[in-house]
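Below is one such protein, fold included:
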Amino acid sequence: MDSYHSMNESNYITPNNNARITVVANGVFFFVGIIGNGLVILAVISSKKLQTSTNAFIVSLAVTDVLTSLTHPIYIVVKCINFYTPRLETVCQIVTPIANTSVCCSFLTLAAIAINRYTLIASPHRIYPALFRAKMNILWITLLWVISASVVILPPYVFDFGKFGFGRDEHNCISVPEHPSTKLYALLVVAVFYPLPLLTIVVCYVGIFIRLFAHNRRLNANRCHLRTQRTSPGRFNTTNDSFDIETRNGKKTHAQSFITPVQIQVTKNMFIIFIALVVCFTPYTVCSILQECAIEVYTRTIASANGIINPIIYGFNHPVFREVFTALIKRKDVPQPSFIWRSIKKKRVMEQTGNSLL
């Protein structure tokens, strides 16, 4: 065994001064992350109103946050322990790739959601149904997880390109700096999971903004043209937001659009989630590239906070999620319950009836 982990060294580890902060933070992230993201998954399972193409990716995103949250108690133990044992190496070699895979999959999932939102607005009737029907969603989500796991796990465990382990100085699970390929491995992971998804997301949301701006201009122009037609004879129907009008070039168009206020709000929410992810992970990403970073423990803690942000955003900003969350928390009937949820409720009622008869 090399000098880094030499058994001739003392097994005692100097207590970490930052342990108290990170232990408390990881404890909070664990409980809030499990409860919040578990509620997101339960909400989508329970209500058909939430069983949409975009929400399939949101469930996958919640799963990544649940997995990340499950690693927090282990990091707490690693942070608090004051002696070295080879088992710490084993623990870190198991936990670190799970956490890293989940984080990387989060970036890819947000990129997929951005593509989903852009396609929904750009081509809702042709391309969107073909790319994002139920079976295709399963394929995309599986592919995202496979890519994430492959890039994170295969290099260190199959090709000896990088290495995970326990850092005595850092008092945490790390990519072992003594390994010759560690820095290149960190650059590989960052290159695949940061700039590429980031570029995809930015391009998609810029495209969405341009189309929404053009849509609003057309809608305002059509409404102005319709008002001028009201002074002249002609038939038109203004029920709700759907009506046939005659444009300036003489062609009939249907003014109802697939771009609804709810869809716009959902798109805004996903963009906010993307911004939150960038804010949380950019400092830690920079530290990962530099390897030696004095504030690494704080950047890691900020990055870990991302796992509890998404459910809060859904709860405050997403009208349907907020409605279902409220019903689940207050133990009321959820709107448009799914078949699975109705079956669970029916089974529970039958069990209660049977117990009362006894």
Summary: The radius of gyration is 26 Å. DSSP finds twelve helices and four strands in the chain. Residues 177 and 291 are 7 Å apart (CA to CA).
